[in-house]
Amino acid sequence: MDADRRDTILVVIAILGALLSFWIPMPWGAIPAAVTLLIAGAALIRSRRAKQD
Asked: How high is the mean pLDDT of the chain?
């Protein structure tokens, strides 16, 4: 498995974990989930744009 594929899989796992934090009620869980979604989403978009160039 190459590094790009591994990074993409890790970002998808982070996004799924953050979405799960929104659905499972836990105290203050939405704040880190929102931060994780922003970081992981930006990383995924940047990774996809780098592959296209």
From this structure: 76
